[in-house]
Specification:
- The chain has 13 helices and no strands.
- The chain is mainly α and 272 residues long.
- It has one domain: Growth Hormone, Chain: A.
- α5 runs antiparallel to α11 and α8 packs antiparallel against α10.
- The protein is globular and about 55 Å long.
- The two termini are 25 Å apart.
């Protein structure tokens, strides 16, 4: 992500980074079923050997494609972690956490929603999850378009739309087709934020501590993984205490919180 940000012209940064994110998304959609199939056909050992071979291929591709003139900047741990004392960095860190948590309140229990609430036969679950994965890939590619021109400004309202989509699940889950469409639309908006906030964190580091850009880039996946864990845990509390039907509107509360933080971030951005 850092290399793409540093080496691409400004007008192409969003598109290129969205393609990198699309690679992650495609890997997550195809990797699990592919690994399962290899494990079933040749044993779990073969699945791990295949994974290792992909690592070798990736290493070879990186050695061929990465620019040779890139130079790192020496920096201490202290100066890197000082980024976390900047309020704009902290705000930018927690927005992805909240928006991805909003989705994972629902997505963690998507199989139960499909089979126990919408009453789809279990044999269709894998197909539906595949379609959801395709929707999330489209979401990743659209994220690049959003990031090209003032992504923060757009995302303030994207998160409000996300909240409405999640909240509507409470009503659409009473109907199989409407509920399914609603879940797929959740997949379409799930990653619309990723390119904007990945680049925003790198740009903030360039402003506060240029030598800490790689550290700033690493904050984004940390934020997302924190959101997945928090959303899953929060979803568990919701399901345990008030039921599956309530996961959507409870997730929408987190999406609204992400919108509020983005409004604040955008205000800081305009005031700089």
């Amino acid at each position: 992500m850092t290399v793409a940000s540093e080496t691409m012209p400004a007008e192409k940064r969003g598109t290129v980074v969205s393609l990198i994110f699309a690679g992650f998304t495609i890997a997550s959609v195809l990797g699990v079923p592919l690994g399962t199939w290899i494990g079933q056909a040749g044993g779990w050992n073969m699945a791990f050997w295949f994974t290792a071979s992909l690592g070798v291929v990736a290493l070879a591709m990186l050695s061929i494609t990465l620019p040779r003139n890139l130079k790192g900047t020496q920096n201490s741990f202290k100066s890197q972690f000082e980024l976390l004392t900047q309020s704009r960095i902290v705000l930018a860190f927690f927005v992805p956490t909240l928006t991805i948590a909003a989705t994972y309140v629902v997505y963690t229990y998507i199989t139960s929603l499909l089979e126990n609430v919408l009453l789809f036969p279990a044999r269709y679950t894998s197909l539906i999850l595949l379609i959801y994965g395709v929707a999330s890939i489209i979401s990743t590619l659209l994220a690049g378009k959003i990031a090209i021109r003032n992504g923060l400004s757009k995302l303030r309202f994207v998160f409000i739309i996300q909240a409405i989509i999640l909240a509507s699940l409470y009503f659409t889950l009473h109907f199989a087709v409407l509920g399914l469409i609603n879940i797929l639309i959740i997949g379409l908006v799930v990653y619309l934020f990723n390119v904007t906030f990945q680049l925003y964190l790198i740009d903030l580091a360039r402003e506060y501590s240029p030598a800490a850009k790689v550290f700033a880039a690493s904050l984004f996946p940390v934020s997302v993984n924190l959101g997945i864990a928090a959303g899953s845990a929060f979803g568990g509390l919701v399901v345990t205490n008030i039921g599956l039907l309530h996961t959507g509107w409870m997730g929408s509360v987190l999406a609204l919180a992400a919108s509020i933080l983005t409004f604040i971030s955008y205000r800081f951005y305009r005031a700089k």
